Amino acid sequence: MICLGSSYDWQFSVRIIIKLIIVEASQTFSSTHGELTVQGLDVPTGIIVGGLFPVHFGTMNNRQEFTKAPWYPNCTDFNPRVLRWAMGMVFAIEEINSNTTLLSNVTLGYTIFDTCYHVTRALHASLKFMEAVVVPPVPPDNKNSPCAVIGDMGSALSVITSHHLGLWYIPQVSYFSSCKCLSDKRLFPSFLRTIPSDAHQASAIALLVNYFGWLYIGTLAAHDEYGQSGVAQFVAEAEHAGACIAFRKILPKVFNANMIQHLGKTASKVILVFATEKDFLPLVNQLSELNATGKTWIASEAWVTSPQLTSLRHVNLLQGTIGVSLVRGKIPGLHEYLTGLGPRFFHMHEMSLEMTKTLSKHEQSPVFNIKHHPKNGMEFKWKINSIFSNNITPSEISAPSGKFSKYELTQFLYNSEYCYQCPKGYQSNEFHDSCVRIPTEYLTFSDPLAMFLSAFALLGIIITMAIGLLLFLHQDLLVVKASSIDGLLLVFLICCYISSVVFIGKPSNISCRLHNVLICVFLTLIVSCILTKTVRLYHFNNISDGAQWTSVKSLLREVSAFLLCAPQLLFCSIWAVTGSSRPFHNFDTRPGTIILECADRTPIWITCTFLYLGILVITCLCLAINAGNKCLAMNAYHNEAKFTTFSMISFILVCLAFVPAYSSTQGKVQFVIKTLAVITTNFSLLGCIFVPRCYTIVRKKNFSLDSQLVCEKLVMTD
C-alpha cells in the first residue's frame, strides 16, 4: 500500500481509505532494495505501466547523524488531490482493459510509487523500474518490467528520473512537468508530456503583463530548472516589451527576515512567482502572518490551483491573483469511480466527501486565468477572460499567427509538442491543430460601401446627362452658345464617373494598371477643357477687338486642348504598359486577414501624373481669378470666371483632404477613399460650373445689355 509516514490522527483515517481503495482496485506489494523498502500500488498483470505520484508532499526533517546509516525520508503532508490523480491512472487502465475495441487480447497492469515530492524517493522509484528492465525477473514468469512510466509531478524530479529512464529509452510521460528544458531530446530522449512547455506559459504571462501595462515587476523563482528557466524567458520578453524588472530573486529553502522585509517594502506592486506549491507555501505563510497585502501576484500553473494557497487563510494576501492554469475537463465515469471506492463504513463518509468536492473547486475560483484547455484529450488552446469573473465569455489569445500545435498519441498518452509552419496564405484554426485558408478582403459589388459608391456615381451620371439634355434643348440661347465646349466637358465627366467604379471587385493585373490611369486621363481632359474656356475668357477681356481674337481662335480652341493633355496622355499610356502596379497580398496590416490591394513598386508614376494635373489646376485657377477681376460687366448669374474659380478651389480642397486619408489606409478602405474623392470632385465641378447656368436657363432671366453683348461676342468667337 502507499506508505504513510505521519502519526497525525487525520492521516490514520486516510490509511483506512487507502486500504479500501486497495481492496477495490489493486493488490499491495513490498519490494526490498538493500535495507530500504519501496511501497505502492501494484497489479503485475500483462503489460505494466509505471506511475510516479507524490501522494505525500513532504518528508520529515530528521537530523542526519554520521555515526548511523543514512536515513530514508519518511513521508508527511498527505495530498488528496494527487491521490485522485493516481487513482485516475488506475481508472484509465481499467477502462482500457474493459474495452475490447482498444486493445484486443492485451491486458494492462500498473505499478505506482509514492515519490513524496522528494529526490531520494523519486530516484529510488526510477531505479526500481530500471531494475525490472535490466535484471531478469525471478521467477521468470514475473513480468513486471514497465513499458512506460507516468510522472513525475515536478520538473526537478522529472529531470532526475528522466536521466535514468532515458538510459534504457523507457518512455516517461509527465502530467505536470512543464520546464522547457525537458524539450531537449538530446538530454531527455524518452521524455514526453501532456502539459505544454513553459515557453508558452512565459510568453503568455509576458503578453498579460503588456496587456495591463505593468512596467515595474518583481520575480521569484524556485531553485530549480522549472523556476529559473521560466523566469529567464519571461524577463527577456517583458524587457523587450518595455517592462522593468524590480528584482529577481530565488526562493530559498529557509526564509530569512531580510527577504520578507524586502518583499513587504518593495515599490513593485506586481510580483511573478514561478515555483511549485511546496516551494512557495512557506513564504506565503510568513507573509500572511505579517499581513503583507497590497501586492498583485502572478502565478504559474504549478501553484495557482493549490487548495492550500487558495484557502481562506491566505485570501487577504493572494486575493486578485492572476495565474496560469490547466482547466480541468470532466472525464466520464471518473467521479463515480472515485466515490464508488468507499467508504465501507459510515464514519468515513465525511472524509471521502471532502476528497471529491474539490473536483470542481478550481472552476469556482474567481481568479483571472490564462487557460490551456484540453479538448477531447488531444487539442489545446489558450484562453483569457477579460475581468475577474467567472461569468465572462472568454476571448482568445492566439498562438503566433500561422502556427499550430499538434499532440500525437503514443501508447494512449500524449507525445511531445511540435509546431508546424502553415503554408503561405493559411493560418491555424481556433484549436491550433490544422491549417485553414486566411480570409481575403477586397471591395466587392455586394459590399455596402461599393453599393454606396455605385449609387453615388450613378446619381452623378444621371445629373450630368440631365444637364446635357437641358443644354441641348436650349441650344439657341446665347448663354448656351457662348460655351460650346461644355458638351465635351460633360462627356468627360460621365467617363470619369464610370472609370471610378467600373473596377470594383477583385484586383487583377489589368484593373490595377488601368484604374488609376483612366482616372488621371479623364481628370486631365476635364481640367484641360476648363482651362481652354478660361484662356478664351481671359483673352476676350484683354483684347477689345473681336477680329484680333478671331485670329488666335483656331490655335486656342483646336490645338490648345490637345497640347495641354498630350503629355499626360503619353505618360499614362507608358504607365499602363510598363508600370509595376500589381495585385498585392498584404499579410501584415491586419493579422488574420489578407488584404488584396493594388501596389506600385515605385511612386514615380502616380507622383508625376498628379503633379502635372496640379500644374494644370493651379494655372486654370490663376487665369480664372485674373479674368474674373475684369469680367465685372457680366451678369452675376453668368460670371463664368467666378464659378471656374470656385470649381478649381473645390478641386484643390478635395485633393488636400484626400492625400492624408489615402496614405493612412489600406485595402478596400483606401479604394473607397480614392473613388469617393473622384466622385466628389466631379460633383463639385458640376455644381460650380453648370448649376448656375442651368438656373439661369430654367428661370429664363433677362440679361442686361452689357451681358448680352458679351455673350454675342463670345458666340462670334466660337
From TrEMBL:
InterPro entries per record: ANF_lig-bd_rcpt (IPR001828), GPCR_3 (IPR000337), GPCR_3_9-Cys_sf (IPR038550), GPCR_3_C (IPR017978), GPCR_3_Ca_sens_rcpt-rel (IPR000068), Peripla_BP_I (IPR028082)
Transmembrane segments: 449-473, 485-504, 516-538, 559-578, 604-625, 646-665, 671-691
Domain spans labelled G-protein coupled receptors family 3 profile: 449-713
Membrane topology term: Multi-pass membrane protein
Pfam entry (one): 7tm_3
PROSITE patterns: G_PROTEIN_RECEP_F3_4
GO molecular function: G protein-coupled receptor activity
SUPFAM superfamilies named among the record's database cross-references: Periplasmic binding protein-like I
PANTHER family in the cross-refs: CALCIUM-SENSING RECEPTOR-RELATED (PTHR24061), G-PROTEIN COUPLED RECEPTORS FAMILY 3 PROFILE DOMAIN-CONTAINING PROTEIN (PTHR24061:SF422)
Name of the protein: G-protein coupled receptors family 3 profile domain-containing protein
Organism: Eptatretus burgeri (Inshore hagfish)
